[in-house]
Amino acid sequence: MLVIGGTAGLGEALFIETDVRQESQVQAAVQRAADRYRRIHAAVNNAGIEGRFGPVQDATAEDFDQVIGVNLRGVWLGMKYEISHMLTHGGGAYCQHVVERGAHWHRECRALHGE
């Protein structure tokens, strides 16, 4: 997780290594950013992986869980804690970003929306 703060321009950057599949790590990262900058005004959830390529019948449950864990659960966890903070501190804005690269667009879009 990369957090940029400051009142003029981009300010400073704070890097927080986070496994977005792990709720406690996402919650801690959001709290650390809020503690450092007093509040979160905006958030962009941009975690995503492609997963292993090949025929669907050769995929494992672990392959599926990893992609859904990052692309769906990770984005949801970010939103959960970011929005909760924003609502208790006067509002804010968030953005979900999907990488647009040809065929990858549909897979990541579905994973993000739970389809």
Question: How would you characterize this protein structure?
Answer:
This protein has three helices and four strands. The protein has 115 residues and is of the alpha+beta class. The chain has one domain (2-113): Rossmann fold (3-Layer(aba) Sandwich), CATH 3.40.50.
Notable characteristics:
115 residues, alpha+beta, two-stranded antiparallel sheet, two-stranded parallel sheet, 3 helices, 46% helix, 14% strand, disordered C terminus
Furnish the topology, listing elements before pairings.
Blueprint: E1 2-5, E2 12-15, H1 23-37, E3 42-45, H2 61-88, E4 93-96, H3 104-113
Parallel strand pairs: 3-4
Antiparallel strand pairs: 1-2
Report the order of strands and helices.
EEHEHEH
Total separate domains: 1
CATH H-level homologous superfamily name: NAD(P)-binding Rossmann-like Domain
| CATH class label | Alpha Beta
Mean pLDDT: 78
* Radius of gyration, in angstroms, nearest whole number: 16 Å
CATH-scheme architecture: 3-Layer(aba) Sandwich
Proportion of residues in β-strands: 5-15%
Main β-sheet, in a few words? 2 strands, antiparallel
Distance between the termini: 26 Å
Low confidence ranges: 100-115
Structural class: alpha+beta
Total helical elements: 3
Question: What is the general shape?
Answer: elongated
Strand order of the largest sheet: 1-2
CATH topology: Rossmann fold
Relative helix content? 40-55%
DSSP, total strands: 4
